[in-house]
Amino acid sequence: MHVSAPASSANLGPGFDCLALALDLPFELSDSPAHLDRDEQGWLVVERTHPAAVAYVLAGGEPNRPLWWRSPIPPGRGLGFSGAARVAGAYLALLTSGAEPTAAQQQAFAVAAKLEGHADNAAASIWGGMTVAAGEQALSLEMPEGLEVIVWWPEKSTSTNASRSVLAPTLSREAAAFSIARSSLWVAAIATGDLSKLRVACEDEVHQNERLLARPDSAEVLQELLANEQVLAAWLSGSGPTVAALMPAGASADLLAPRLFESGRTRVLAVSAIGVNQVSSTPNT
User: Looking at the keywords, is ATP-binding present (predicted)?
Assistant: First the structure.
């Protein structure tokens, strides 16, 4: 069996641990060795400590069953690599045990969110689109058509735990109200299609500013993106160092200036409308 789960960009600025976008960058997982006949396919053996393997076992999969994975999602960059891997692992185990796809999604969400310690990335990788997660509850909103996301990341990765350690232990009421309002505005803007509100909606006073102080390279890219009028919203993706921006499809060509992106790598991605899914019984080339 072969399953695929999309990457994700979490927080979207103010939606700390609750908002995320699913991105068309897959994590693939298989329990079939058929694809090993050709080395160019890029499949790797899943080690027991891999996030996908841990989730697979926690969801009821056989501990010693061989698994293989492949993915273009860069680990440690704030694009939900571990979340997608955990979702794929749990979902594969549940489907293998005979669970119906809808039930498998809900159960895989619970497993992945528990392992992640927060539900935002898991929700996006499970259901696709723009997701809102609150504890064990999550909803997916369909994104308006004609949009794309440009993501930039430097060569150096960021540990989520290390990134969280720079955050202040307490938050003022004003800062909390500031970010709650903008997080709500994100949801309302997508639900109503009024994308003109997204620039304000991506502002944050909970976590983003402190994290950007530790990553001046990411901060510079974020400011340059926001200086372009075609950018609808831009934010630090997850715990960073990736910076993401939402814009009309085709507009990214004007942003791929060498000076802006020479210090890292850039991808232009679609929002993934679907979440984790079974690709086929046997992986194809």
Answer: yes
